[in-house]
Amino acid sequence: MSGKTMDIKEIMKRIPHRFPFLLVDRVLDYEDDKWIRAIKNVTINEPFFQGHFPGEPIMPGVLMIEALAQTGGILALAGEDKKEKLAFFMTIDKVKFRKPAVPGDQLELYVESLKLVRKNIVKVKGEVSVGGKIIAEGELMFNVIDRPE
User: Fold this and answer.
1) How many Å apart are CA 110 and CA 124, to the nearest integer?
2) In DSSP terms, which residues pair with 140 in a beta bridge?
């Protein structure tokens, strides 16, 4: 454990996402360029529950992967030298959904760097867990670029 954390204000400084598309509530711990652990609290107030399986609400799987991608983007941008950068989601591979997420769940998001493909291209592997059980996983790749002026 590194002891590094980020609250929602710091997360919003790192990535451009805002409600209703900001899907990371807190970073619990991370090590620059290596790994990150974050959480997303799933509540019945989420706007997607109005139309996604009414009466039996489940979080869309693509949004679990988006939460992983945002967590991976935070990891790709960790470090003082990357404050003026953006991480663009490029590819997704080897995704598996094992169990749905429902209101009341706390998604535990874990992402680790696999390799630096090129100078600005980062490949990561991520897992979404609830209560210590993996419910989704996949490999993601990002292009880290300068923020537009």
Assistant:
1) 10
2) 92, 124
Tell if the pTM clears 0.70, that is, is over it.
yes
> Residue 77 is encoded by which pair of tokens?
């941008």
Active site residue 17: no
CA atoms of 31 and 53, how far apart (whole Å):
38
Domains and CATH numbers, the chain: 8-146 (3.10.129.10)
Distance CA 59, CA 96 (A): 15
- The residue annotated as part of the active site, out of 26, 52, 82, 99, is 52
Instruction: Answer whether residue 105 shows pLDDT above 90.
Output: yes
Distance CA 116, CA 105 (A): 33
Tokens read off for 55: 């009466």
Query: Which of the listed ranges 2-6, 15-19, 57-61, 77-81 does the model predict with the highest average pLDDT?
Result: 57-61
